[in-house]
Structures are given as structure tokens and as C-alpha cells.
Design brief:
The complex is a heterodimer of chains A (257) and B (182). Chain A has 257 residues and is α+β, with helices and mostly antiparallel strands. Chain A is built from three helices and twelve strands, in the order H-H-H-E-E-E-E-E-E-E-E-E-E-E-E. Chain A has a six-stranded antiparallel barrel with strand order 1-2-5-4-3-12. The relative contact order of chain A is 0.14. Helix content of chain B is 71%, strand content 2%. Classes of the chains: A alpha+beta (257), B mainly alpha (182).
């Protein structure tokens, strides 16, 4: 009976496999959300036990940071206006903004070899499979399984997540993908299929190129850590722009405004 | 009679939920704490073969439903392969059931959880290696495989103690100290 049941599961089409996964994700999501809330409360209680001088110091630090961010924000707004004016002048299409659905990470992956997280937004909020996910720092990954009020995100650190990319200050293009067996807690990314003469320098930024249709162009993926020439191509190791290990809130790009 | 296997199914489910909130262990090269297999291997000792197979089916299905990746129109690893893994490893554990019934439960559970959990993680790695190509076996892979087994062995006595107390409460199993009394 067991063998027949397994044979039946093996015969499922990808679409039906996703349906089974979606149904189970929908079932387990409330438990994961409850667990996540409990974890957050526990951390809040633990972090809440601070002394008055610690709180005062933190408050001063945050006030300074707030002023700096306000100044940076104003500067960026001015630059955006100027950029759009120049684009119009050059008869380029004004770069439209993304429609973003904010989501909270409710659970991290429990597996050893896959890199995924679960978020608290799903089909009911307009999320669909293969939608890019990002934060203000850069690209996070894409949605795979979508339930009614929860979704699974395949992180860029996973070997199966491949993103077409280009390198700042050069004409080099390649494919970014995660490593199967990262040796560090914060996994590095690999940028493959570069030309042997690329000669990328550390700290050069790598952005999504938009080729392939899933990821929008111009989203920061990471920063070059080192470059090496292999027998057939050039390969760069990248530090992801987003710290995937401490990620808490993300945005799902559901379209353009 | 059926209540204890149903309780074990609930325990497997909550172990799976719990696993999501346990971070990987940095001192063991990011090895994972796998609670569900530890609970499952207790179940394989405590319940008869038919119930072990039923639990293997449900545990494997739950695991695959969360772990298997469907990319574009391809399923990387078919839904259901973990069922075979749980069933075959559960069958091995089930072979030690007579020892459990004679009161050697926790030792067997602790000793077998390590290698069986490591075997499970190794099987997963081999499966994705075959599917994706490139035969990569750096040292970190062995640390993660062995580390998961080591942590499972450390957890096993506690899991055994809790589940066995509940089994006794359900009237499913005699207390392990019976052997000492004899």
C-alpha cells in the first residue's frame, strides 16, 4: 500500500506537486506564525531588560542616525527628480516604481541543503509564484510555493536560484547563483560565465540585469569579494547585499505602479 | 489503542514546526537540529510495523511538502522520496523493537538516532548531487552530516524520556524500569 501511495506521488505533475505543497504550507502557516510571534515576544522580553543608561545611549544613537537618514533621504529625493528630468530629456521612459507587498519572515528553513524562508503573505495579498523578493538593501530571492496567507521564498544563496547580473563600471554580464555547500554562516554567492579578461576588483557592485524576466533590472545583488580565472570562464565570489541570516522583513514585487 | 500513534503523529508535526525555529549550530559548521527524525525513530521502536509505515508516510510527506523545490516546470526531487527514506530507516529501527520491549529502549534509541539521522542527511545530499551534477564533497559536508547525527544522539534521551512517559500514561508501553524490577 505504501509503495502504491509513493508511486502515486512520484507520478504527480509539477503543477499538482505545487498544489500539495501549497495546501500543506497553508495548513502549517498558522503554527509557524504562532511560533514566530512567540519567538519575537521572547526576544523582546530578553532585549527589554536593559538598564537606563543603555536605553539613553541607544536613544541618542538612534536620534543621530535618524537625522542622518533624513538628510540622505532628502538628497536621494532630489537626485530622483533630477534623474527623471534627465530621462525625460533623453526621451527615455521614466523608470516606474515597483508595487511592493511588505511581508514578515515567519520561519527559516529547517533543512540542511536548501535555502528558503517562509513569509506571512500569500495569494490573498496578490503574491504569485516566481515573484522577486527584495529589501531596501538588495535582492533576497523569489517566491516559489504560494498558499493563501503564506509563501516560500527561494533565497539567492540557494544553488537553484539563478539571477542574470551585470557588474558596475564594466560591460561584464554573468549568472549569480548560491553555493551548495557554503562554508560560512553568511553564504557567499558565485558570479559565473564572466570573460577571462574581466578582472573585477573587490567592492565592485553587482546588479540584476533584468534578463530572464523574473527579476527587475538594477537591483543590488552583492559586492565582489574576489575574482579568479577558471579554465573556461571568469568567476567572482560575491558577498550578498542583504544579510540573509538576520533578515526579518522583506518586500515582494507584485508588479509595477 | 489508536490514540498513541495519533499522538505520535501530532508530535511529529510539532517537531517539524519546532525545527523551523532552531537555528543551525555555528560550532558544528551550521549543522541542523533535526527533531522530527528523532521523534520518528522513537515511534519506530514503540509502535508495530504497520503504524511505523503509516507514520513514515506522513512524516515523509510533510517533509517533502516543505522541502521539495518546484522550479519553473521541473520538480527537482519528486514528492514522496522522503517517505521511502523514512520507511526504510524506520524498518531498521523497528528491528530493534524486541530490545525496547525488554527494557533497553533509551540506549538503542540514543545509539541508533545518530547514524540514522546522519544517513538521512547524507541521502538528501546525494539526491541533490545526482540531480544537480558536480560531485562536491568538501569537509563542511561531512561536518553537517555527522553534526546532525551527533546532535540527534544528544537529544535522543530527552525525547525518549518525554515520549516514553506519555506512552506509559496512554497504557501503550510498560515502564522501562520493569527490567530492573525483574
Amino acid at each position: 500500500m505504501l509503495v502504491i501511495a509513493v508511486a502515486g506521488l512520484f507520478a504527480l505533475s509539477p503543477r499538482n506537486t505545487q498544489r500539495v505543497q501549497s495546501a500543506f504550507l497553508g495548513f502549517i502557516a498558522p503554527f509557524l506564525k504562532t511560533g514566530s510571534t512567540m519567538q519575537t515576544k521572547f526576544i523582546a522580553i530578553r532585549e527589554g531588560l536593559k538598564t537606563l543608561p543603555q536605553l539613553e545611549q541607544e536613544n541618542t544613537q538612534l536620534a543621530v542616525e535618524n537625522k542622518e537618514l533624513k538628510a540622505t533621504n532628502q538628497m536621494l529625493r532630489d537626485l530622483a527628480v533630477e534623474n527623471n528630468k534627465l530621462r525625460r530629456a533623453l526621451e527615455y521612459r521614466e523608470r516606474s516604481l515597483f508595487k511592493l507587498v511588505p511581508a514578515r519572515i515567519i520561519a527559516r528553513d529547517a533543512t540542511t541543503w536548501w535555502n528558503t524562508v517562509k513569509i506571512d503573505k500569500g495569494a490573498a495579498e496578490g503574491v504569485e509564484p516566481d515573484m522577486p523578493v527584495l529589501t531596501e538593501d538588495g535582492l533576497v530571492g523569489k517566491t516559489t510555493v504560494v498558499a493563501e496567507h503564506a509563501s516560500t521564498i527561494l533565497l539567492i544563496a540557494d544553488e537553484n536560484c539563478k539571477v542574470a547580473a551585470n557588474v558596475e563600471g564594466s560591460r561584464e554580464q554573468g549568472i549569480v547563483k548560491g553555493e551548495r555547500t557554503s562554508t560560512t554562516a553568511i553564504p557567499d554567492l558565485g558570479l559565473n560565465f564572466l570573460s577571462k579578461t574581466a578582472d573585477l576588483k573587490p567592492t565592485q557592485k553587482v546588479y540584476s540585469s533584468g534578463v530572464g524576466g523574473v527579476y527587475p533590472s538594477g537591483v543590488l545583488i552583492g559586492v565582489v569579494k574576489k575574482f579568479e580565472v577558471r579554465s573556461l570562464d571568469g568567476h567572482a565570489t560575491l558577498v550578498p547585499a542583504v544579510d540573509l541570516t538576520t533578515l526579518e522583513d522583506v518586500f515582494v514585487v507584485t508588479g509595477r505602479k | 489503542m489508536i490514540m498513541f500513534p495519533v499522538f505520535l503523529l501530532a508530535a511529529l508535526f510539532f517537531a517539524l514546526v519546532g525545527e523551523h525555529f532552531i537555528p543551525p549550530l555555528p560550532w558544528l559548521h551550521e549543522a541542523r537540529v533535526l527533531l522530527m527524525p528523532v521523534v520518528f525513530f522513537y515511534a519506530a521502536l514503540a509502535v508495530p510495523a504497520w503504524a511505523t509505515m503509516a507514520l513514515a508516510f506522513l512524516a515523509g510527506l510533510m517533509w517533502d511538502a516543505l522541502a521539495v523545490q518546484v522550479l519553473d516546470t521541473n520538480v527537482e526531487i519528486s514528492l514522496g522520496w522522503s517517505i521511502l527514506l523514512y520507511a526504510s530507516l524506520g524498518a531498521i529501527m523497528s528491528g530493534f523493537r524486541p530490545l525496547y520491549q525488554r527494557g533497553h529502549g533509551w540506549e538503542i534509541h540514543c545509539l541508533m538516532c545518530g547514524p540514522l539521522v546522519s544517513l538521512m542527511v547524507l541521502a538528501e545530499f546525494l539526491m541533490i548531487t545526482v540531480r544537480r551534477g558536480e560531485f562536491l564533497f568538501p569537509q563542511v559536508v561531512w561536518w553537517r552530516i555527522g553534526g546532525a547525527g551527533l546532535v540527534a544522539m544528544m537529544l535522543a534521551p530527552f525525547v525518549f524520556l518525554i515520549l516514553h512517559l506519555i506512552a506509559v500514561t496512554f497504557g501503550w508501553a510498560a515502564p522501562q524500569r520493569r527490567k530492573v524490577a525483574q
